């Protein structure tokens, strides 16, 4: 169903992003593969072309830890593609030690949350140009997790896994809020959790936590199949503001449904981004 359609995937150099990009290319989609570096992107494209020799691929490089690089990517996408049928915000990072980007943000907060927030807002016009527009953001934190608005970037309490999933909670809340704000506009906007899968994302996890996690996880190809299943499902294309776990939509936790919390995060996020843009 994606033959001839245009899809954009971040984190396409390896892992889930590469596996999903390969599937879309094999399905005949015009696949924009966004990678952190040109070198890693060329290698990824070569791998995809080996499996999908007739695929239409466009490599774009972007360091999501750099606002300037994000803006360059947006300029390139908008200049090249008047419409997009699917955007899959997949790229993520997990850091054992708290790291600050050149823009002054905690690394995971910027890459895992601020970057996809900017991309999904900025590419709405391109998505509106498609009759079957779908935006998928990767992840699903625990329903019990809460945000500390006084410490959104984990400056006071940084723990790798906890801080990572709080960035995913930020993304989930913003995703549901964007779905609410664009309801009726013909856009389908969701979170999609492919389930645990073997990933290099946990490379900095203390031993044996990362090793054990990967030992009992699905393969990256199985995870990619789950993303494709959601991307092709009538439910995902018909509705908006859903959270998918593997292949099924799950009930929204009460905290996720709290409009006041979502709007507070949205306002704080825009303030942070504007401060960098004006500085």
Description:
The chain has an eight-stranded mixed β-sheet, with helices on both faces. α1 (15-26) crosses α2 (38-51). It is of the alpha/beta class and 279 residues long. The chain has ten helices and eight strands. It has helices spanning 15-26, 38-51, 67-80, 107-122, 124-128, 160-181, 209-215, 220-232, 234-238, 259-278, and strands at 6-10, 30-35, 56-61, 86-89, 133-138, 187-193, 242-245, 248-250. The chain is 46% helix and 15% strand.
Topology:
Layout: E1 6-10, H1 15-26, E2 30-35, H2 38-51, E3 56-61, H3 67-80, E4 86-89, H4 107-122, H5 124-128, E5 133-138, H6 160-181, E6 187-193, H7 209-215, H8 220-232, H9 234-238, E7 242-245, E8 248-250, H10 259-278
Parallel strand pairs: 1-2, 1-4, 2-3, 4-5, 5-6, 6-7
Antiparallel strand pairs: 7-8
Radius of gyration: 17 Å
Helical content band = 40-55%
Low-confidence stretches: none
Alpha-beta classification: alpha/beta
Let me know the number of strands.
8
Given the structure, what is the number of helices? Answer: 10
Instruction: Based on Cα principal axes, name the global outline.
Output: globular
What portion of the residues fall into strands of 2 or more residues? Answer: 5-15%
Written as H for each helix and E for each strand, in order along the chain, the element string is: EHEHEHEHHEHEHHHEEH
Report mean pLDDT, rounded to a whole number.
94
N→C terminal distance: 44 Å
Strand order of the biggest β-sheet: 3-2-1-4-5-6-7-8
Q: How many strands, which pairing sense, and closed or not: the largest β-sheet?
A: 8 strands, mixed
